[in-house]
Design brief:
Elements: H1 2-14, H2 20-48, H3 52-68, H4 73-101, H5 107-110
């Protein structure tokens, strides 16, 4: 979710939470949690099936709201972790659904 990559440095500097290194660490936490969820997607899909997209969207929204209201380093980091865990859930399911439901001759238009 690009809001994390673009808005995190602004929040860190505007609220005097640290410098560019702090913002970089928070963005790295987002990237690592996204990777972890990518590795665990199959396990979550096994339990949630077709609800995984709604689950991912819901927690992306929750994370975005917390991100918007974050005025401390802990709140900002936790919101980035929630976004980082939920974004790959919805995204991976969406791309998998498109790949499986779109006819082969229309694959170029669906991406």
């Amino acid at each position: 979710m690009s809001i994390v990559n673009v808005y995190t440095p602004y929040l860190v500097l505007a609220h005097h939470l640290g410098g560019s290194m702090t913002a970089s660490v928070i963005i790295t936490v987002y990237t690592l949690t996204s990777m972890v969820m990518g590795f665990l997607f199959g396990t979550f899909f096994h339990f949630l099936h077709r609800y995984i997209f709604l689950f991912g969207l819901f927690f992306m929204g929750v994370g975005a709201v917390f991100f918007y209201f974050a005025h401390g380093l802990v709140t900002l980091t936790l919101s980035v972790i929630v976004i980082g865990l939920s974004y790959p859930m919805a995204g991976t399911y969406l791309f998998n659904t498109i790949a499986n439901r779109v006819p082969q001759r229309m694959a170029g238009l669906s991406n």
